[in-house]
Design a protein that fits this description.
mainly alpha; Growth Hormone, Chain: A; 16 helices; 0% strand
Length: 451
């Protein structure tokens, strides 16, 4: 790709604007995934369904996160980011309004699935777009906003929607979600193409040098191969597999917490809906504080590693991205244990479990913002497929957790259930350190990763 076509040569204002639009578009989806929870009592009464069936609305949305990347990740590598964003944005907005005016429970649940399915083009492909218009040194900084929107959205959803639900009812809660995603989907229409091979293809076509179009059979063969690639990566690439296992577990815990918090604050501590919504400020502040850490400490550590590698005359290793994840891996189980042994005891001030939520959110973002740029650096031009494999596994786990969380917390108690999750987090904590020691060897043995 020639220099003039390279999105990495865009000015700062253009890159920052594109990055902001794409990342806030991600926020519209993650916000909608959990804002739904505040309307559960009204949904149960309106459609005459059980709480378990109503919760499927969360499960189906997150399940859409799992299915969508398998199509939109490879499609963006074949046809470019722009067309995928535009088509998915249209249907994403349409189904969001469909959910707002759903006549029955079945249609509501179907619309919620397709909201997640078409919205997944944002949450999966935006990191690949960030890789398109940033160089190695900048990538971590631009990824911070994405991580904040991807994880901050689920905590913002219950906080804002609690007040909307309380003051305006469930229909306006759903309408706000639909309006929010539609406004951003319209802005995304104006985002230029960033995918290098697609830009080069367009240039060759303008100059009359484009190769003849492939026959339909060959196109389908190429597309099938591209769709299969995320699953191939998930089960044959140790790097993708380990990252997916770790992030999937944390993602499941996060989505399970949205039901667990209700047990703690509303059932045990007797909070009202709006007061309960305010407890999510702890999560939001944790995500924000982690962003500050990534922008300062994380970026400084990466620059030091890059300069050391340059002095030795070697490329910067992708493992340099994981320095903040070391802290996050240690902090994650600690925060869960604190929550387990403070949250269910009303005589312990409510600020204690909120601090635990703050620490857990901080640890999640530190881990996430380490691993996502790490995958982009490792797989480069096929990063969308590597990210799709991770997003698919995360969404599958995240969609299942809300279905059994309330029962688990009632059966095992809050301290028992959360301690179990903390123990799992302890078992997974060594993964970033495994990459530190063996990451280069894994990449050298891989057929797809950059050595």
């Amino acid at each position: 790709m020639t220099t003039c076509l390279d999105p990495r040569n865009w000015g700062f204002v253009k890159r920052a604007t594109v990055n902001s639009i794409l990342c806030i578009w991600v926020l519209t989806l993650t916000y909608a995934s959990t804002a739904y929870v505040s309307s559960l009592p009204d949904i149960i009464r309106r459609y005459n369904i059980s709480e378990e069936v109503a919760l499927i609305g969360v499960t189906f949305t997150v399940l859409g996160f799992a299915a969508g990347p398998l199509l939109f990740g490879p499609a963006s590598e074949l046809y470019g980011r722009q067309v995928v964003y535009r088509v998915s944005g249209l249907f994403y907005s349409a189904f969001a309004f469909g959910a707002a005016f759903a006549p029955n429970a079945a249609s509501l649940l179907i619309f919620r699935f397709f909201i997640g399915f078409f919205g997944a083009a944002a949450i999966n492909n935006v990191p690949a777009s960030i890789g398109d218009y940033t160089n190695l040194r900048e990538r971590g900084q631009y990824s911070i906003l994405y991580a904040l929107m991807a994880f901050g959205g689920p905590s913002l959803g219950p906080l804002a929607s609690a007040f909307i639900q309380n003051d305006a009812g469930y229909q306006w809660n759903f309408r706000v979600m639909a309006i929010f995603c539609t406004v951003l989907s319209i802005l995304v229409v104006f985002v230029p193409e960033t995918h290098g091979p697609t830009l080069l293809k367009w240039k060759n076509k303008r100059q009359g040098q484009a190769p003849p179009p492939l026959e339909f059979g060959k196109v389908m063969t190429v597309f099938k191969t591209a769709i299969a690639r995320p699953m191939i990566y998930l089960f044959t690439e140790p790097v993708v597999m380990l990252v997916s296992i770790y992030l999937s577990t944390l993602y499941g815990i996060l989505y399970g917490f949205f039901e667990a918090f209700g047990v703690v604050y509303m059932e045990i501590r007797g909070f009202k809906l709006t007061s309960y919504g305010l407890t999510y400020i702890g999560l939001g502040l944790g995500f924000f504080f982690a962003c500050v850490l990534m922008f300062t400490y994380g970026q400084n550590q990466y620059i030091k590693s890059a300069e050391a590698a340059k002095a030795k005359g070697v490329p910067t290793a992708p493992e340099a991205r994981l320095i903040p994840a070391y802290l996050g891996a240690i902090l994650s189980p600690i925060s869960l244990f604190i929550f387990a042994w403070t949250a269910p005891f009303p005589h312990v001030h409510w600020i204690a479990p909120v601090i635990a939520q703050f620490l857990f959110a901080c640890s999640m973002l530190l881990i996430f913002t380490g691993f996502i740029p790490y995958l982009i650096d490792c797989y480069q031009m096929t990063a969308a497929s590597a990210l799709a494999a991770g997003m698919c596994s995360r969404a599958l786990v995240g969609s299942v957790f809300p279905l059994f969380t309330i029962q688990m917390y009632h059966t095992l108690t809050v301290q028992g259930a959360t301690s179990l999750l903390a123990g799992i987090a302890c078992l997974l904590a060594p993964i970033p350190f495994v990459f530190k020691v063996y990451g280069s060897q894994m990449r050298e043995r891989s057929e797809h990763a950059a050595a």
